[in-house]
Structures are given as structure tokens and as C-alpha cells.
Amino acid sequence: MSNLANKVAFVTGGSRGIGAAIVKRLAADGAHVAFTYVSATDKALALATTIEEAGGTALPIQADSGDAAAIAAAIETAVQRLGGLDIIVNNAGVSVFSPVDHAEDTLDVVARLHAINVTGVAAAVRTASKYLGDGGRVINIGSSFADRVAFAGFADYAATKAALAAYARGWAWDLGKKGITVNTIQPGPTDTDMNPDNSDFATTIKAGLALGRYASPDEIAAVVSFVASPDASFVTGATINVDGGQNA
Ligand SMILES: NC(=O)c1ccc[n+]([C@@H]2O[C@H](COP(=O)([O-])OP(=O)(O)OC[C@H]3O[C@@H](n4cnc5c(N)ncnc54)[C@H](OP(=O)(O)O)[C@@H]3O)[C@@H](O)[C@H]2O)c1
């Protein structure tokens, strides 16, 4: 038996990139996986088909994490369709380049960033905590930028990811007595649409990594798999860097 057999997982932003790798990995571990997406319907449906054809269970749900009611409704749908909830992975996120002295960047940009990266997560965990029980897992996908920003223009993004790490520490206390763990995984540069490893900027980024290369999404998903597993039962309130030594 796989170590997540008969568990139900809910992953936000599962159609592409790190989220898709997490969906695939948790399904391979034996979990029934619901996942959200916004615009990449074709990719979401193709991923679900691949998992179902391999004998797994996948449920794509269109839900904007920037809409707190939509994300709560998506979790309710997953619980009803898959029969419960054991693991939530808060992966959906967006990044903006927004130097504080750029007059053209409005606070609307900052508000939308916080709505998706922070408030959407707070809404998701409020709903999920109604259903998670002993052995439950809350896993936030933060960023190495929460600890060290490294480049100009990413303060707003970094602040949202620092908030996720702080939330995980607080929620670990709120939910610990129910046997639920809450942790944040902080990826470093990972080859996705958000941060392709062949961009003009990638050479500069790689020079700042001890390993000198980007992660593949599967390398982030492998750590999510461990934190979701029974082997990680005493890990809670932790911030786990998976950053190739960017912050070493
Ligand atoms: N890539 C990196 O270098 C890196 C490093 C550190 C942390 N991270 C974090 O890792 C997470 C995943 O990043 P990624 O690189 O895989 O990004 P990505 O390639 O841009 O993929 C983003 C995923 O999130 C979904 N999404 C975007 N906005 C959403 C919203 N409002 N509501 C629901 N889903 C939404 C997208 O859905 P659609 O396909 O439908 O648009 C897609 O599935 C993010 O939280 C990011 O901040 C990434």
C-alpha cells in the first residue's frame, strides 16, 4: 500500500508547475486528489485524465484563490465528492515585480497579490479545519524570498510569503491539539512558467545558488510528499527551505 492510500488531498493551483507536480506525486502516493485552477482548463483536465488512467482519483475544480468564497466552496465540493479531507496544500500563488518607488504600481496590485497569496490561504484553512482530523496536514508553499529577498522589486511578493510562514507557525498551535500538523515549504528557483530556467534573468539567479541550478517541480513535490506522510508526524510549525542553497 502507498503511504497516502485512502487519504483525500486538496491542492490549490494544480494545473501547472509546482502544483501539478504535487498533484501527480500525491496521487502516486495513493491519495485521492482534488485540485484548483483558474484559466488553464485544458491542462487541468489533461492532468486529471492522466491520473485517472493510471488508476488514481483526481478532481479538477475551477476556483480563484483571490475569491475567498470560491476557495471555500471548492473545498466543500472536494469534501462532498471525495468523502472527507486529510491534506491541504496551499500552492496557488502569483508573483509581481513591484519596486516600491515605481509610481505606476498601484496598491490595487498589492491588494490582488495579498488576496491570492495570503487571504485565499487563510480562507482555505478556515474551511479545511472543519474537516481535518487527527493526522491531518496543512502545507503552505512559501518562498525562499520570505527569508532573504535577494533582488529589487520583490518586496510585495516576499511579504506575502513571509506571512504564510508566520501563519503556519500560528496555525500549528491552533490545530496541534487535534493532531493536525501545519508547515511551510519554501522553494527556491524552480523551473515553471512563473520562473523558467532559460530566462534572461536565470543565469544571474543560478549564480546565487549553492547547487548552481534550478529545481525541477518534482523536487519540491518530493518534500511535500514527505511532509504529508505519516513519517512527518512530529514536524509542525516548521519552515523547510528547498532552495538549492539560495539562503545558505
Ligand atoms: N517557480 C518558482 O521559482 C517558485 C519559487 C518559490 C515559490 N514558488 C511558489 O510556488 C507556487 C507555484 O508556483 P509555480 O512556479 O508553479 O507557478 P506557475 O507556473 O505560475 O503556476 C501557477 C499555478 O497556480 C494557479 N493559479 C494562479 N493564480 C491562481 C488563482 N488566483 N487561483 C487559483 N489558482 C491560481 C495556476 O492556474 P492556471 O494554470 O489555471 O492559471 C497554476 O496552476 C506559488 O505559490 C509560487 O509563489 C515558486
UniProtKB/TrEMBL annotation:
Q: Where is the Ketoreductase domain?
A: 7-192
Q: Which domain of life is it from?
A: Bacteria
* Molecular function via GO: oxidoreductase activity, acting on the CH-OH group of donors, NAD or NADP as acceptor
- Entry-linked Pfam families: adh_short_C2
Q: Where is the signal peptide?
A: none
Q: Which SMART domains does the record associate with it?
A: PKS_KR
Q: Which family does it belong to?
A: Belongs to the short-chain dehydrogenases/reductases (SDR) family.
**Name of the protein this chain belongs to:** 3-oxoacyl-[acyl-carrier protein] reductase
